[in-house]
């Protein structure tokens, strides 16, 4: 009897291939797990209304069950099956969608509890990536998609990062090349009169306007902030602007294997590995998670990343760096 042909898992699809999006859309509708590129980071997608599929997302990522997922839809017309829009949400959506802004709103009662982690709210966004939008349109189902990393690891910005973390625990990986932005979307509670920033991200507080307010002490509103995040295995050290090369040189002089991600004006000292150079904060954001992963792949003893000013996109970058440094047992400068 001929052996039954088992499709390779995960099925790796180049998003530019003719049938790739249609194949991935079919898989989503069947309840399979499909990794998709977005403008921020890669997402691990499942039909948001299929409780069994969404449970597999939590299992594949080893994600704590109390951390809800972002639901992705192709346009504002499709949010009705996920959340109830408020006037503020309509205003924000008109300004920022498609784009890296996630809105937290009252959840549609039909959404399974596993997607919302049992909360009465749900997070929703329209991603600004042609492949993601084509997939969402073709699938015709809302897609719950956390970042496609193993829980606690840096978010993936290439398909190779996803493969390294999740490998055969996903069904399909749709490879759309490197993500443009490199840090996650901004999460905003849009239920009230003013946007409340729950997680800094690619849309800055400055862009959201003076009306944006930071959350109070009630972190229950933003479950993801309770969990360890973004940390590579090797210690991350974040010296102030201008001081990173000297800090890296000092560690190398002690005989440690050290990597440096610094501004383009810094000199890489002898004995220090170059993890990348950035001209501005946008470029740093796009390189950051790849550099943290490279530090682990090269089994470095320390990864030194030059700090940037805590304004604009720098706020999101420094937030991730502080978490990475804390997760690896080192301290970054206070906010
Ligand atoms: O850019 C992004 O946002 C990427 C791409 C794939 O869209 N996704 C992403 O998902 O970063 P994830 O799961 O890694 O982060 C989602 C964040 C978490 O901090 C989670 O706690 C928060 O959104 N969140 C989700 N639903 C929420 C809700 N109902 N209330 C408050 N926060 C919520
Ligand atoms: Mg994540």
Task: List the main descriptive attributes of the protein structure presented here.
disordered C terminus; ten-stranded mixed β-sheet; binds threonylcarbamoyladenylate; alpha/beta; 335 residues; 10 helices; binds magnesium ion; globular; four-stranded parallel β-sheet; 18% strand
Kindly summarize this structure in a few lines:
This protein is of the alpha/beta class and 335 residues long. The chain has 10 helices and 14 strands. The chain is globular.
Biggest sheet statistics: 10 strands, mixed
Class per helix and strand makeup: alpha/beta
Number of strands: 14
**DSSP strand (E) fraction?**
15-25%
Q: Which molecules other than protein and nucleic acid are bound?
A: threonylcarbamoyladenylate, magnesium ion
Helical content stands at: 25-40%
- Number of helices in the DSSP assignment: 10
Spans with pLDDT under 50 lasting ≥5 residues?
Answer: 329-335
Coarse shape: globular
Order of helices and strands: EHEEHEHEHEHEHEEEHEHEEHEH
Give the mean pLDDT.
92
User: What is the CA-based Rg, rounded?
Assistant: 20 Å
Mind explaining what this structure looks like?
A hairpin with a 6-residue loop joins β9 and β10. 30% of the residues lie in helices and 18% in strands. The strands form 2 sheets. A 10-stranded mixed sheet has the order 1-8-2-3-7-4-6-5-9-10, with helices on both faces. The protein has a 4-stranded parallel sheet with strand order 11-14-12-13. α1 crosses α5. The chain is built from 10 helices and 14 strands. The structure holds threonylcarbamoyladenylate (TXA) and magnesium ion. The site of magnesium ion has 3 residues, from loops.
